[in-house]
Amino acid sequence: MQGRCRVSRNALKMEEKLKVGDLVLVLHEDKIITEGRIVNINEFRPPAEKFAVDIGLDDVVFLPEERLLKK
Asked: Is 19:38 a contact under the CB 8 Å cutoff?
């Protein structure tokens, strides 16, 4: 699934708030690069690191909301 699918954020409804436990697609330059599960949301981290996402293989990445799409 990595990097094969272009996504137009304008075509998607952003009505639902992301929350801990949500499955998400991780985007980079409008392409889906992987998927994961939100394990933490911290309002005190910089906006670019607000969401902690477990992408498997014992890896957690910190991402901004605009790089996540609820699955």
From this structure: yes
Size of the chain in residues: 71
Q: How many helices and strands, by DSSP H and E, does the chain display?
A: 0, 5
Domain 9-70's class? mainly beta
pLDDT tens across the length of the chain (71 residues): 455 556 555 544 445 789 999 999 999 998 999 999 999 999 999 999 999 999 998 899 999 999 999 99
Look at the pTM and tell me if it is higher than 0.85: no
d(CA 7, CA 50): 22
**Phi, psi (deg, nearest 5) at residue 48:** -75, -10
Q: Evaluate whether 20 touches 40 at the Cβ level (below 8 Å).
A: yes
